[in-house]
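Field: COMPLEX_INPUT
Field: COMPONENT_COUNT = two
Field: RESIDUE_TOTAL = 1397
Field: MODE = joint
Values follow.
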Amino acid sequence: MLPMDHVAPADGLVDALCQALGSHAVVTSVDALRTYDADASMMVACTPDFVAVPATPEQAATAVRLALHAGYPIVARGAGTGIAGGAVPVRRGLVLSFARMEQIEQVELRSRFAVVQAGVVNAELNAHLAPLGFQFAPDPSSQRASTIGGNLGTNAGGPHCLKYGVTTNHILAVEIVRPDGSLVWTGDGVVEASGYDLTGVVVGSEGTFGPVTRAIVRLTPLPEANRVVLALFPSVIAASSAVSAVIAAGSLPTSLEVMDHNGIRAVNGAYGLGLPEAEGTTLLIIEVDGVEDGLDDLLEQILQICRDQGAFELRPARTPAEQARVWAARKAFAGAIGRLAPAYLLVDTSVPRTRLPLMMEHVERLRQEYGVEVCNVFHAGDGNLHPLVLYDPRDADQTHRAHAIAEAVLALSIEQGGVISGEHGIGLEKQDFLPLLMSHADLQLHAAVFAVFNPTNQFNPAKIFPTAMPPLELAAQRRARLHAAREPQLPVAALADTLRQLLGAAYVREHDAQVTIQPGTVAELAASVAACYRAGVAVVPLGGGLPPELDHTSTDVQVVILTQRLTRVCTYAPDDLTIGVEAGMSLAELRRLLAANGQQLPLDVAGADQATLGGLVAAAADGPRRAGYGSLRDWVLGMTVVEADGTLVRLGAQVVKNVSGYDLPKLFVGSRGTLGIIATVSLKVFPQPPATATLALTCPDRGSAFALVDRLAASRLQPTAVEYVEAFQVTAAAVSLQVPEHIPTIEAGSPSSQTVPSPLPMLYVRAEGHPAAVERHLRELALMAGPFQMVSQHLEGEAERALWHALIALDDSGSDPQTARIRLAVPPADLCAAVEDAGQIAVQYRLGLRLNARALNGVAYLHATGSTEDLRQFYTMLAERWRHVHLLDAAPAVRAGLHPWGFVPAQDLMRTLKTELDPQGCMHPSVRFVP
Amino acid sequence: MTSEPTGARTKVDIPLVGFSNKDRPSTAIINTCVHCGLCLSSCPTYRETGLEMSSPRGRIYLMKAVDEGRIGIDSEVFQEQMSQCLNCRACEAVCPSGVQYGAILEASRTQIEQARDAGRSAVAPTSIAAQPVLPPRPLWQEGLRRGVFDLLFQDMRAFRTFSWSMRLYQRSGLQWFARNSGILKLIRMDETETMLPPISTSFMVPQGQIFPAIGERRYSVAVLTGCIMGTAFSHVHEATIRVLQQNGCDVILPPDQGCCGALHTHGGDLDGGRALARRNIAAFEHLGVDAIVINAAGCGSTLKEYGHLLHDDTIWHARAEAFSEKIKDIHEFLTSIDMNQAGLAPLPISVTYQEPCHLAHAQRITAEPRQLLRAIPELELREMNESSLCCGSAGVYNVTQPEMAAQLGARKVKNALATGAKVIATANPGCALQLAGELRRRGEEVQVRYIVELLDESYRRKMDHS
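Field: COMPLEX_OUTPUT
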């Protein structure tokens, strides 16, 4: 008996597939195909027409090409452990299973990345890495079976994401299949690639941007030590309050997981936890990790908060076996529901952390109101709720009530500033709830990006977007909107006057063909952009500085938009550890605001008084402390953006976990104003560490400096910054080393250091956190440095502040026409060689060269000084020899005719994306990533 | 919350051949599966094929489809998958919801076999409401099945006679002829033949023998000698008895015992298994021993589940439960008592441990065998990758699914060899044969030994030296 609408694929297609993949890898038998009609959501969709199980990326690409050519849609499937229906077909077609693509192709420990096929099982990757001292940090509960491809499709979270971040923070590049069957990488694993962050937007796209065949994943060192404690509370609300209090107190544990009495009942027996199961009893699992030193004290501080919040029992899980059992129980929870009820709805929403207790009160009220059992097991530290509504599908009324609770929780979460999915995705489950969260324009922008990746709607169709709003229609609507918004046309000559009317004469200045405006509100910004669009005039958004790409010689009229008056705080509840501000706020002002609450944004750049948040985000600025905290890409949670026609859209949200629609904010980080103008931005912020100190090391030579960095990278230490500084100068055709005067130098204390020409390469290593942990870092580092004959100096307090101030000032080259600023990014293992090479080329072209590098990240900033022609030659040669060479700043004569962006991956996609989002090409047109 | 049932189930037009009521797979157990998929990565056949229907979740989904009348028991996919499953029960050990997979798999196989039995007498394969009918097995299969299940394993005298004839085959030169003439390949028995164990010179025939404890008597235990363990592996029984004696046990081999019935229950002949269970219960239940000790993982797990096997039998159910209570795997037993450590002499060898499925998954005994290996001085235990992934032996699996069995055997031996260990330790006859067969094919020198054999050797060395 066949499912009603099953259409057997044409013989020719099946033959071709069997030939390419082997007949064992192609499923056409109907009874077998039925097993592919559901994933862990049990939202039965429909039986696919056929299934292909490729063993290599090339086979996957062939299957895609054949199926698309024959008109079949394609659904990519990992292990089918998703719970939003993302991996099941609703339009039949081909299910492309990645179960056999499980090769770990390459592991680079020093550069901290691995190349893996999409079907690699998360737990197996971790089992492979653990003996090497590393991990792939995202740990979704399904990790025992779920694949990396599936994890990145849903931007999966997990209990340890509180400290380590979600999947997107650990994916460096992906290989996707394009509709023509070609394989395209969105990057090469070096994070500083120029152009749009396609990787960031493919992660979380739930297979709608094409099947992912391979990924380059980030490796994170395993912590030296950890502690796990089970804290028992009398109610779920008390436990939630404790979580908020812990976060508010400024300690960021590795995990804070809540499990209520129903959850305890489900796993207690099977995992031998021996926990009390009385009504109300709620378990909070707390984990902290790091270096051994100070860990117990840190834990004790957290436990004291728990006691204050009503914890009646604290049980440490001491042995690794005990800890493993606790986590196995926690992760088995959803699967264990079979012990409690025949079916469940697992609601996944995310709210600002401080709203958790309130949400728990709502859930409790709903449970009583609807008379349906609800179980709460969730990632409390992230504000990610998982009320699990238990019901019996054979009872229609109960089923109805269960769904009513789930819907109410979604609506309440949105009301509290939250989103409708924290980590499971939208899939089939929540597509019709998306309009509750997003405006029509927001959806249109989502659809525009969809159309770039999935122009024929054959990749995982009928997912994510509301059933009544097919994405290609939405994208067409947006195109029509952009077309219509050009009317009524505004004569260019009248633009300045129109802008004056909008903003007031004081905020509009004209010189030559350039109009400079300063909108005072987001609405004014949007209206100004709309006016420019009607006039057909290009807009150039400007934060604190002048972008080097700004073409001063242009005779075309252009409008420069200064955002400096947009300085309001939109949302700041300090205990949420997030802040939303207007794009024109300066970094210095943000720091002051945060510091008043003991918080910080760990971004150190030169000129913080001028630099605006919008500008920093648009330029994807980075600072030395990215080694410990990540970079803006990891902290931007949401933003509002003014599109080319002046439409204001909202992307992301001010919550730390969010997979409700595509991760579009990623596209705007580093987009340099070419896709839209950032009006407001929501950021993750961090508590100020209780202690910080820096060890400054004078190294006898470059080799020993990098040998020390290698040892540091292989250790269990977690420094927040490792900055390398070196200077080259031409002296009689040989390279000597020189530290410019304004780098704090160290008195040469040991006789050995006087025998080498001073000044020498410097290494600055910073540690932050518990005082004992900081002390340990510096002590161990000094020991490591011992054999290398380095002179070390321990800096704290004011001296440390002054040091970093001076180091960061190195990035500010001023406007010396003789100097070019260049960013050179490489896999960290290659940094020493790259620095060496850059030095030799500099010598060849008789340039002075100074560089500072984030030694653990493989990013070097070069300041080259010399004649225009020599600078041009130097840049050209460097760019020929190294892939990621970006000319940041140089005099127009140096820049003229050079492609400043370095390597740009997936250029066709980049180009299509720009055209789709800004068809008139009016957003900052002088920036052209694709040559 | 939204579903788009575009591919909705069609309504049933033709009556499907469903499950019959006798030994029907429990709907309640089937519905305990919430489809979470956490079992997938632990399933050997899924790991080899990457196919959903070859996973535990997929197979339960197929059972559910038959149970709910969406597909028939005559579905080729259903039959193939019920056969392809190794019943290793790795999925059970990792299932968060505690789905008793072995029980529904064995019942599903029994459903298929019952329908085939019915097919022998039916005129044409049709559906009769109460009695599902499938086409009968090919004659050779039928003959083999009846011969093996009804004759050989039901009567240990017949089994021993058969074993003698196999021994004759091995010693007479007939084996040499068969292996070199290509005749085995011709009758497609070449893969199976390599598995044929070298038959021991003496069989362990249980006749009520008692082997007294060495030193102070602390326990009295009975040993089930079984079928193949009593003939091909009688040296393992001897080792087991000596190790038990070393640990202060009087060891009794009660008469009238037989095969545990594992092959029958796993192969869809639950009634055959029940007959054997009743015989064994009767043979052991009046002994009053402290424990009934088993050295074969597959037998141990079957014996521990007699209660479930006979759950519908009002007379035997309680006796079966009491019997199963007494069953102790040898590794479980030795680590639960104050073991004789002093009597162990050093064995300076490198050993890797291959976990029998019915020890690791069905009985959840994973730490104890390792604990025993580590107890032997100077023995170096080297863990292999995927130590608990089935080796592909699984009873008659080599005969029913030779291709998959060979793939898994090769995968296992590859993992074992990668450790560089000189000995692969295990605790089950099927595993021992599978590993030895694969090693022989590769011409590897590595030995396959039971853990009790290594313990025995260690005790004996001490005896020799003192």
